[in-house]
Amino acid sequence: QGIECIMPASGVITAVEPVMKACGGTWVAHGAGNMDRETVDTHDRVRVPPVEPAYSLRRVWLTKEEENGYYYGFSNEGLWPLCHIAHTRPVFREADFNVYRQVNEKFAAAILEECKNDPKPLIFIQDYHFALLPRMIKKAKPGAKIALFWHIPWPNPEAFGICPWQRDLVYGMLGCDLIGFHIQFHCNNFMETVERSIESRIDWERFTVIHQNHSTVVKPFPISIPFKPSGTDLSIFASAKERVAKELGMRPGYLGVGVDRLDYTKGIIERFHAVERFLEKNPRYVGDFTFVQIGAPSREHIDRYKRFIETVGYEAQRINDKFRNDRCKAIVFLKGYHSHQEIEPYYQAADFCLVTSLHDGMNLVAKEYINSRWDDDGALILSQFAGASRELASALLVNPYDIEQVADAIRYCLEMDDEERARRMRRLRNVLREKNIYRWAATLISELVQIRAEAGASMGRKQSAQESVDLPMS
Fold this sequence. Notes:
The chain is of the alpha/beta class. The chain is built from 16 helices and 15 strands. The chain has helices at 11-23, 36-39, 64-83, 94-114, 133-140, 157-160, 166-173, 184-197, 235-248, 268-281, 303-322, 340-349, 365-372, 403-415, 418-434, 437-470, and strands spanning 26-30, 45-48, 55-60, 122-126, 145-149, 178-181, 201-203, 208-211, 214-220, 254-261, 289-296, 331-335, 352-355, 379-383, 396-398. The strands form three sheets. It has a six-stranded mixed β-sheet, with helices on both faces. α3 (64-83) crosses α4 and α9 crosses α12. The protein starts with 10 loop residues before the first helix and ends with a helix. Residues 458-474 have low confidence and may be disordered.
């Protein structure tokens, strides 16, 4: 009998939603909820959040066939495994790519309708679902200022080259004025892919692609989250431990936590094996240590994901049977959707957070954990293959495939002295304070505006030079 906004487990939404709240504007998005049609106005818009509206959601409606081909098919059976080096073979079907193009056209129509009265709108496109969209918008509205942020890794050109439509994707993306990735390495890979797939001029000094008299700048913009300043009431952390103990129905002496979408790229199975190895090597912790894995179901329409989720549950049960005791479980697997408010007590109660992505553009769970630990306690174990490892050097960096190394890192976290824990966490929080989501957005948007201003000035100089040439000689 009211309207409630539910936030999916998505790094894109975690990062971009605070920017939309701060800046306003319109977010054009697929309406997937079963009540979304009931809440929009006659123009398919709804103001959010319901209590204090800050921006508009413009809904785009997709048929079940479009959702299967565009989202589950080409985007997540094709592009997702292609870009993540996690040893899962991508699946490419022409029918899926045709629907992907069709849905990109549908979004282009909605965007152009939203900005029909603005000759120079600023359009910020998110992620690999919309690689064709920039070119479509630029053709229809040349004055538009377009940025695309690619939230996942970009592989080397040899890997990306197996996609049958790599030229179409790259051509579509070069409709942008600015393309952003998390780290420089992914920018390098993209530029090399362009160089091998499309006839263009590459300016490596300025990291710019010139194609059909249009320039696209490619730069790294490490994404982040809003920074939470330190509080004064440290009893919150004791209360969090009490709440978690009550929810779990047990009171372990030591607690680790992992929070992920249930995706094969997140290294959850490898994480469980590291917990198993840790308990084998350090039996004194059996019955006194619990690792909680909070996992949001994801893309369950895809067989690969169904099998993965089943394997996660099986491995958790197998390890619990192996270390069965009367005091606490070795692993607690909480499958389901959890809000940030529900997750935060686990962050605040945990002795460490384990982020073991096999390949990740950034991974904002690492930053959310740091954000919750304003008591300067807790420790972060972070995969060297997550983009966040480039910024968060004071975490314990590990190779998630090296089970022995991760197991030893768990022991090190639990036995680390208080001074070192506090020193590491303060450094991590200083990074997060300095590089928060608002700085990310401001830097990216400022860069986009500056690019367009420079292009306009350059065009003006070119026109003036042409005029001087055409003047009759005295």
